[in-house]
Amino acid sequence: MSCFFLLQGFKVPKSISSFVIPLGTTINMDGTAIMQGVAAVFIAQLYGIDLSVAEQLTATLAFIGTAAVPSAGIVIGIILGVGRCWI
């Protein structure tokens, strides 16, 4: 739904629609975060690296914040991978 449709069709105030629509768009990107977290765990298992539950949770939480940023998942994945190699 666009802000224009909400403003004209449902008569929602502009201050509310301009806050709620971007927030809802970001919140609904959870599938991207889950996919990237699962991919990180899969790649770690592929290379024989055992990740603890805390490391798996950290990877998934890191990807939640990057869902709305284009190509940020790749950067976070590299950071998590390099950090693991230095341990």
UniProtKB/TrEMBL annotation:
Its main location: membrane. InterPro entries: DAACS, Na-dicarboxylate_symporter, Na:dicarbo_symporter_sf. One of its GO terms (molecular function) is symporter activity. This is Sodium:dicarboxylate symporter family protein. Keywords: Membrane, Transmembrane, Transmembrane helix, Transport. The chain crosses the membrane at residues 34-54, 61-82. It is found in: Membrane. It holds the Pfam family SDF. It comes from Marinithermofilum abyssi. Coiled coil: none annotated. It is a multi-pass membrane protein. GO terms for cellular component: membrane.
